[in-house]
Design brief:
heterodimer; A: nine-stranded mixed β-sheet; 10 helices; B: alpha/beta; nine-stranded mixed β-sheet; globular; nucleus (chain B); cytoplasm (chain B); P-loop_NTPase (chain B); Elongator_complex_protein_4 (chain B); tRNA processing (chain B)
């Protein structure tokens, strides 16, 4: 299930991609009229697109719409898709999940989405959610349910918008991407690479590269001869390789004391003062 | 005041001056895949990850509940659940898997395959304490007496090997998997039971009923005399408390069923204590809006750990964490029939998921070799 979390309207470029790949697309439109959605699609694509009118009367007050918000249950939607011809694995696009969430219990709504996902009739669900219209908790649970979340926001640059995609695969890998895109007048999407941000990164690196040994009154550098002489200096406790490895080998009695008896330790029992002239 | 008695199961305190006697079983229960704890004599099973066993005191005690707080995208907690179930398959325990989002059969098919030979285990224990070769060109010139000292021990391992190692890149063979008996509960396929008098919402109620039926029928609580060898039941409950279980603790500040999950855990723990079973429950705690509910849930479980993954957060680019995939927080350790529990010596634990191992290591600060000096 794909979820589109947006702060401004739009998002119908996805439709064109799906129709081109040959799938049936069912659109539950609660927020935009059919003409706006189908603008720019050629006739063969329009045949595969089934628009269920909810706008301008999503709650059915004036009985002008074919699909109202209350009918967003798994039985109704599955029936709706089966009623159309060639009911293969289709894609369900919900123009605004926010509209549905306002009038349904969030727990029931999430269970409906889960039933639709596992029903077998629908292959992908693409939903649009206005994240600023709901509490943090509700946005959290819907995003947790989705396999892919695309968050759209205006970028610093006026003309571009940034889309952050988080995709979760079945094996548990998470992939995140950030893309900049702009939508032209005739609803054509152009994705661009990340624009270079001037200044920030380069400035930090310059500061740390200043050499500390440059402006001093004493010399901290070594010439080549001086370095060679330094390496030739015999350090104390530098032993030959055999003595090093002998010392490194763990001996069984490493606390041994080796003592060679001194001249004064030669104690003669019969002559304790050592003054007999014998 | 009596000190906790260290000893094997079955030994009465002969040499003690107090009259305090630990309630122990009269004979040693020998079930494959379990061993008695050296600290308090409980019967332990491995959780599938040997470093996690070390952190929680040797293993999971039979009759207790392990609560895992999920990371943001549920990748590592799901991995831990799969390790837990795979360990059950390899040891020959019975399994019970309940899930609301993915079908239990899908989870069972993703279990990692065990590494059969002992080579992996041997290499891991050898690599840590290997001294460097004296002929090695980067032996130390001045401090050469220290070159044989072992490096800082970051990996947590005990001397006794308990549990198995798994290769995450391969899935378990179907023959091995089907040799283990697995009961599954998929919330989507259950018919809702109208329970007007129960304090629990319908999915939790049916799940508890199902667990109770399995325990009674297979004789884990000793009700039916078992002629066959006694066995342990491993329960894996995935993502309890999420919306798909019919619980709204994740989406509202004041949920309508604010005591649903706590009641469920209380009853589940009662069922576990009276049977030879051990449960692992994962909860999406990052979605719960009310912090007090999470505190209650932790208190009601025995062992509680939390996984925090670096993916998607600003810690991902922190150089301190570059070797690891996330942090592990130990929220609670149980005191089972003893006065104090064994706590790990450090609270800074980080985990990383490699192909052959899920390691949990002590997070230690490397020496600060940066150019900029911080003036005090």
């Amino acid at each position: 299930m794909l979820l589109d979390v947006m702060q401004a309207g739009g998002g119908f470029i996805l439709l064109e991609g799906n129709i081109i790949s040959g799938e049936d697309v069912h659109v539950l439109g609660f927020e935009s009229p059919e003409t706006q959605v189908c603008a720019g699609l050629d006739s063969s694509s329009v045949q595969r697109l089934h628009f269920h009118k909810g706008f301008p009367d999503p709650l059915g007050w004036t009985c002008r719409s074919s699909f109202t918000v209350e009918r967003f249950t798994s039985q109704h939607i599955t029936q709706l898709i089966k009623d159309t011809q060639h009911a293969q694995a289709s894609v369900l696009v919900v123009d605004s999940l926010s509209m549905v969430l306002r009038h349904h219990d969030p727990v029931v709504f999430c269970q409906t989405l889960q039933e639709l996902r596992n029903g077998g009739v629908i292959k992908t669900i693409i939903g649009l959610l206005h994240s600023d219209l709901h509490q943090q908790g509700i946005v959290g649970i819907v995003c947790h349910l989705a396999g892919t979340v695309i968050s759209v926001a205006p970028a610093d640059n006026e003309r571009l918008s940034v889309a952050k995609t988080t995709r979760r695969t079945k094996s548990g890998k998470v992939m995140q991407e950030e893309e900049y895109f702009s939508v032209s007048e005739d609803a054509a999407l152009s994705v661009q690479a990340k624009p270079r941000q001037p200044g920030h990164v380069q400035r930090e690196r310059d500061v740390s590269e200043a050499d500390p040994t440059s402006n001093l009154t004493f010399n901290l550098r070594l010439s080549e001869d001086e370095r060679k002489a330094k390496e030739k200096v015999a350090l104390p406790f530098v032993f030959s390789q055999q003595k090093k490895s002998a010392l490194l080998r763990p001996t069984p009695g490493s606390g041994r004391i080796v003592y060679e008896p001194d001249a004064n330790d030669d104690f003669d029992e019969e002559d304790p003062d050592d003054d007999l002239d014998v | 005041m009596a000190a906790p008695v260290r000893g094997m199961i079955g030994s009465t305190s002969i040499g003690n001056t107090t009259s305090f006697q630990k309630k122990t079983r009269s004979k040693l229960v020998s079930i494959p895949g379990t061993r008695p704890s050296v600290q308090n004599g409980q019967l332990l099973v491995s959780s599938g990850v040997s470093s996690l066993d070390y952190v929680i005191g040797g293993g999971l005690a039979v009759g207790t509940l392990l609560l895992v707080e999920e990371d943001r995208y549920d990748s590592y907690s799901r991995m831990l659940l799969k390790y837990f179930l795979a360990e059950g398959v390899v040891c020959g325990h019975e399994l019970f898997l309940a899930s609301a989002r993915d079908h239990p059969d899908d989870i069972m098919q993703e279990l990692p395959s065990p590494i059969v030979d002992d080579v992996a285990g041997m290499k891991i224990s050898e690599g840590q304490s290997q001294p460097s070769d004296p002929e090695n060109p980067d032996t130390m010139k001045i401090a050469w007496r220290y070159q044989n000292q072992p490096k800082v021990q970051t990996a947590l391992a005990s001397s006794v090997r308990f549990g198995h190692y798994y290769d995450v890149s391969k899935t378990m063979e179907p023959e091995l998997r089907q040799a283990a008996k697995c009961h599954s509960f998929y919330q989507l396929q259950e018919t809702p039971v109208v329970t007007a008098s129960s304090p629990l919402p319908s999915p939790y109620h049916s799940l508890l009923k199902s667990i109770q039926t399995v325990i009674r029928k297979e004789g884990f609580d000793g009700s039916t005399p078992q002629s066959k060898v006694r066995n342990v039941l491993r329960l894996g409950l995935h993502s309890l408390g999420s919306v798909l279980w019919g619980d709204d603790v994740c989406c509202k500040d004041n949920p309508a069923h604010c005591h649903a999950l706590t009641t469920f855990l209380y009853i589940l723990r009662g069922l576990l204590r009276t049977s030879l079973s051990v449960a692992m429950v994962t909860v999406p705690s990052h979605l719960t809006q009310n912090r007090a509910v999470m505190g209650r849930i932790i208190r009601l479980s025995d062992t509680a750990i939390a996984l925090e993954s670096f993916k998607g957060s600003e810690k991902e680019t922190n150089p301190l964490y570059k070797d690891y995939h996330g942090l592990l927080h130990v929220r609670q350790l149980p005191r089972l029939n003893c006065l104090s529990c064994e706590v790990p010596d450090t609270k800074d634990l980080a985990f990383k998921l490699k192909r052959k191992q899920f390691t949990i290591e002590r997070l230690h600060l490397p020496p600060d070799l940066s150019e900029t000096t911080v003036s005090p």
